[in-house]
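Hi R.,

Quick one: here's the L1 transposable element RRM domain-containing protein sequence you asked about.
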Amino acid sequence: MEMLKLDETEFPALPVTPSEPAAKKKTTKSVHSASDSDIIGTLSQLINERSDSIEKLVSGNTERIDELSKKIDIAFANIKEMESKICKVEGRMLELEKPVKMLEQRMDELESYSRRWNLRLYGVSENKEENVRLQAVKICQSVLPGESGRLSEVIDIAHRLGHKSTTDSRPRPIILQFTSRMMRNEVWKRAKTSTYLKANGFLFKEDFSKGDRERRSKLWPFVKQARDAGKTAFFAGARAFIQGEGEIKI
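And here's the predicted structure, written out as C-alpha cells:
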C-alpha cells in the first residue's frame, strides 16, 4: 500500500510566539486603560455641569410658576368678587323692573288718553305763507257744516308734523287738537263717509301713541282673519272687536 504525501503549503507550520510582543501588549493595555479613565472623567464632568444647568432651569421655572399661580389666585378672587357684585346689581334691577314697567304703562295710558282729543289730517298741500289752523278749521267745517261756528272755537291747535323733506314731495300731515272730545268724535265719525274729503284727496286718521300702534299691529291679523271669514271686525282705539263675539284678547 502506497503512503499519501502531504503538501506543506496546505498545512503550514504553526507560528512561534515570541516573548517580547507579550510585554508590548501589556504596555498597550495600560495606555488604553488610562485613556478610558480620562474619557469617563470628562463625561462625568459634562453630566454634572448639564445636571446643574437643568436644576437651575427647573428652579427658575418653578419660581415663575409659583408667581403665576399667585397672580391667577388673585385674579380668580377678583372675578368672584365681581360676580358677587353683579348678582347683587341684577337682583336690584329685578326689584326695580316691575315698578318701571308700571310707570311705563301708566305713561303710555296718559299719552293715549291725551291723544283722544287729536286727529291727523292728510293731503293738505303746503306753502310758505300758509295758515295751517285756518285751513284745518275750514276742512272740518266742510265735513261738519252744522257746527261751523263751534269748530272755529274748539280746534285749539293745528300744525304740521315733522320737518319738511327734500326727497319726499308729499305734504306733511297736520295734527289737530280739539278742546271738545264730543266735537272731535263727531268730525271723526262724519269724515268716514264725507264726499268732500274724497273729492279733494283729504283723509282723517286717529292719532295713536306708540303703545297703541304696537297693540293695533298685533291685533290686525286677527281682525283681518275675522273679516276674511265674513265677520264684522273693527277697532276702537287700541282695542279690537268682532261683532257678536266681543273684544279680541291676545
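The first helix runs from residue 20 to 114.

Cheers,
M.
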